[in-house]
Amino acid sequence: MTRQSLFRMRMAGLLRKELRQILRDPSSIALAVVLPLVMLFLFGYGVSLDAEHVPLAMVLQDRAAPARELAARFEGSRYFDVRHAASLSEARRWLDQRKVEGIVCLQSDFAAHIQRQQAASVQVIVNGVDANRARLIQAYARGVLQQWGALRHARGEAAAVPAVTVVQRVWFNEGAVSRNFLVPGLIALIMTLIGTLLTALVVAREWERGTMEAILVTPLRRIDLLLGKLLPYFFLGMAGMGLSVALAVTLFQVPLRGSLSVLFVLSALFMLAALGLGLMISAAVRVQFVAAQISIVTGFLPAVFLSGLLFDLESTPLPIQIVSHVVPARYFVTIIHTLFMAGNVWSVLLPNALALLVMAVLFIALAYRNITKRLEAP
Amino acid sequence: MTTVVRPPDSDPSVTTESVLTARRLTKTFAAAKAKAEVVTALQGVSLKVDRGQVAGLVGADGAGKTTLLRIAAGLLVPTEGTVTVLGLDSARDSLAVQSRVGYMPQRFGLYEDLTVAENMDLYADLQGVPKAERRRRYPRLLAMTGLAPFPRRRAGDLSGGMKQKLGLACALIKSPQLLLLDEPTVGVDPVSRRELWKIVYELAEGEGIGVLLATAYLDEAERCHHVALLHEGRLMAEGPPRAFHDRVRGRVFLIAPPAGVAPRRIHTRLARATGIQDVTIRAGRVRLVTAADAAAGAAFDLPATWRAGMQPAEPCFEDAFMALLPRREAAFAPAAQIDDGAAAVEVGEVVVRTEGLSKYFGAFAAVQDLSFEVRRGEIFGLLGPNGAGKSTTFRMLCGLTTAGGGKLTVAGRDLRRSRARARARLGYMAQRFSLYTQLSVRENLQFYGRAYGLAGARLQARMDWAYAEFGLAAWRDRAAGELPGGYKQRLAMATALLHQPDILFLDEPTSGVDPLARREFWLRINGFAQQGVTVVVTTHFMEESEYCDRMLIMSRGRTLAVGTPEQIRALARSADLPAPTMEDAFIALAEGRAGAASSGAHQ
Hints:
The structure holds two protein chains of two kinds. Chain A is an alpha/beta fold.
């Protein structure tokens, strides 16, 4: 038999074995399929960074027409659920009890000020425990005020706001729907789970169960060992990505503005980087527990916190920004956000893709260098 | 198939029959921690295995057997020396070596999620066996291993013996010229053990394969053509088993106990006598090996009635092994129980009783319809191969698992109702010594003492007792993880006995422990039983049941027989086998040959 046919036979054997194990082992299925689905549904439906139907206390110390009209504008907004409080102190009690998240107070001289063409102050108090949400509520409140002011101005009535107003437009994610931002980012997380955590775990499991020793005494070469783990989990990860993309576009209605083929090619690069990390871990660690810990700390947590998936990296301290540059997920989250919401913007995609390529090659080369056919402790 | 084709790239000088040659092999492992010492697993070991030869690598745990096999298979690189396999250097040409040898690691290396056929396919793929050859080879391997009826069964669902045979089939997938087997028979039932040896001999004598087989079972050495005895990394002796026998010829005796004297009593007495190298109980008689310098049977003190029953015996490998082994320190001498064999065995009240005990895991019956009773001061053995249901039974007895069905009373209490109170009177030593390896001996004792409600002066008194009784005083500030194997076992036993339990449960206390420590263990157990402690012990070493008063043999969750060792051995007695061993009895019971007789011993 030729070298090539022997190689093909070994590869086919390894791939078949891995596939059967994945299909028959409930823990692999749970990690590769169930967990991603749970995360998608959780983030797609449950977790939302948007503020809608914010409970708001309205204190009307002035009962004149302009005050009542403004209150009605708040009541009509889909961002707020308004409850009327008899006094400011009652409203504050509600705030303390977390029954409301903000207070809008129109003081007794509100209408009088407006009549005299003076600036009428509107007091807006917001629960600032969650700073991001507080800013969102503030902005929504300002929006309502501005619209009301513009309306009065158009009617030729005295307005408390200047005639020139800022017109905001949110680009790419017009509705500022956080799901459009979170669901594509999750794909990075799911691929990290499969590529890094699952791969490191299955190799450690072979050590623990003693099958690795039996495999190592067969005439396998190191490249066979590397490819034997790389290929099956590459395909598994890409399948997970495909499933996530399909769900994102159909079920969660996330717009995909870039091309699907570019998405697949760049995802493949990220998958290789994630796998490279997982294989590096598995070359160094032979216990599942330790493998899981290391992959969570080096793969999963950075993908959550240092990738720009949940938090904007631009607003983090400089040291963290620097550290984030060694996290492959950072580049991929940028890529995937761009592809989903903006389109094939090559000036963004190419540098990030290059970074992923470098990392993938580096990690896999290091993993290959550390794979051994000896039992000697690493 | 019997012709051996030499690989074209092998050393042409290998025209001799040698398939494996180890030359002055030394292997050291770097210490895991900075301050720990370098571990020397092998030291200057030379060895040769010929074509068609079954060579045994015999020694206790930690002797270096696995290290040697792994070096031969190219999995480890020797620190010094070389191993030449079929003319190839196992470290330099490991790929070439690996395509010509079959290797079965200790845990058989099977994928439990894959079926029998899928496991074989995988190894055939990895070894590059062409499809046409597989069609010829599979039926033969399956027939030889008796796996032909189950090609679609998952390896995880096979019994221990069947896993072992599948592991062997996978190692043989490419007609290797050398077969390396690492403790293939550990925890496997005697029937499967016997079958494995049959296969090994067919391979060696029929196909001319050289076999190097590591084993901790000393009786298996007798079955090898050539034996290499390893101890703590050194080659103590080698040669055919007969050469080992000759070393102790004339020094081995058997004492048939006089009527009314339990062999255990003679055993305890002789274990302390000077001039005796080794003493065991075998098939109801006391076997002893005298020291090399003692005149035959004269140098030690023996009551005349006992001496009357003494006669010379044919030596076996174990006798030679014990005579060769360096004595480590003063052997265990129980001070508390001086016994001249006069006292009759008192039969106490029943302290453990089970009736129709069973336990199911889903549809799988781990234990079925188990009934027995144990009386105060008895040593009761639960015997069977791995997977027989011994540990499950044990966990039910100790209240660690709830009983699935049937009745269970321990220390007069129904374990299903008052578990905590029954447990206070139990001592339990788990299969893996459950010690905190980072804590010192003293801290381990303190922790377990407090866990059982001991404190203050009483705890101190019990700890002092433990130091004295188990010889642990010198080790009290050492971390438990750093203790030598025998001492770990002593500490584990001390923690189980601190609160002075009435009943002591010991789960596989002797597995992975060297023969010296095993002997010491049984002497100690004997002493506790004489003080009125009831001992229930599991083991997969069939011959250890001789130390029990009564025993139960189980297999696949079912009871094969209950009775005294004498009664159970008698079940296998036949014209061709006038003095059967416990292992013969197990095989006879498992194969149903003793079926008619077994009802007699069944309660």
